[in-house]
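Q: Convert this sequence to structure tokens.
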Amino acid sequence: IRQVFCICDRDGDGWLNAEELQRFAVQTGFNGNAEEWLEEFGILCTEQGGHRDRGFSLDMFARLVDDTSLDGCFCSDDE
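A:
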């Protein structure tokens, strides 16, 4: 999870903002447009405790991708 986070964190600030997290989302099946992604990102922030400005820290991202509920974005190690 840390490796994926670091690859996505293009600016190296320790947070995945909307643009950086979108790269991950597209690789794991999100196929909406930019407007749809911003809406989805806002929902994720609300449901998962992310910050609309900064996004998700490594800990938040780890919880997000390990969350098997309908609110999470579970990804297996194979994915």
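The chain has a mean pLDDT of 85.
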